[in-house]
Amino acid sequence: GRVRHLPNGVAEDPQGDVPGRPGRCIYAGRLSPEKGVETLVRAAAAVAGLELVLCGDGPLRSRLEALAARAPAGRIEFLGHLDAAALHAAIAAAAFAAVPSEWNENAPYAVLEAMAHGRAVLATPLGGLPELVEDGVTGVLGPAGDVGRWSAALAAAVAGAPAMQRFGRQARCR
Q1: What are the backbone dihedrals phi and psi of residue 25, each rounded to the nearest 5 degrees, phi first?
Q2: How far apart (Å, rounded) are the C-alpha atoms in residues 165 and 17?
Q3: CA 24 to the chain's CA centroid
Q4: d(Cα 162, Cα 64) in Å, to the nearest integer?
Q5: Could you report the per-residue pLDDT of 40-68, keeping only the tens digit for each?
């Protein structure tokens, strides 16, 4: 009776109902193996109409930049580490967010901030992610490390902008 669960929270974006740029996906986090960002970059390279923006830095940056260089021009952009205001602007400019973690996340702020901005989230069903992202309601859950399935999920998100906007509105409410 003395224990209470207080979930993490973030401030709601007052302009969260404004749709982001069509086809623009944001990844905000550390560029390291456990985050699944290499899977995301490889998957994004094959998706026409997608514009992947990577916010963050880490040990995989040079490897990811080399992979991105093989993708069509303008498909993958690196913004590096951003301060809070710039990160919020980058989230607001995106149509949806990706959290392709390949390890058990708890309650990552990348998900919470995207949801607060009214953005649907594509994530893996590991750790606490399915507690935040409800498949088909606030986003889409897909298998960790599967480049083909992530390419398909990204392509569906780009093609299904109305569904992504609906998921984003529901994510913001949650």
Answers
A1: -120, 135
A2: 9
A3: 10
A4: 30
A5: 999 999 999 999 999 999 999 999 999 99
Token duo for residue 70: 């093989």
Q: Which amino acid is at 14?
A: P
Query: If you ran DSSP here, which 8-state letter would residue 98 be given?
Result: E
- Residue 54, C-beta contacts closer than 8 angstroms, at least 6 positions apart: 27, 31, 37, 41, 64, 76, 77, 78, 79
Whole-angstrom Cα distance, residue 69 to residue 71?
A: 6
- Residue 30 pLDDT level (bands cut at 50, 70, 90): very high
Eight-state DSSP code of residue 106: -
Look at the block and give the residue holding tokens 């298998």.
143
Q: Which residue carries 């560029």 as its tokens? A: 31
Among 134, 107, 113, 137, residue whose Cα is nearest residue 5:
107
What tokens does 112 get? 């919470």
> Phi and psi dihedrals of 141, rounded to 5?
-105, 135
For the entire predicted model, the pTM comes to 0.94
C-alpha separations of 154 from 4, 95, 131, 143, 169 in Å: 37, 11, 21, 13, 19
- List the one residue out of 159, 106, 113, 84 whose CA is nearest residue 10: 113
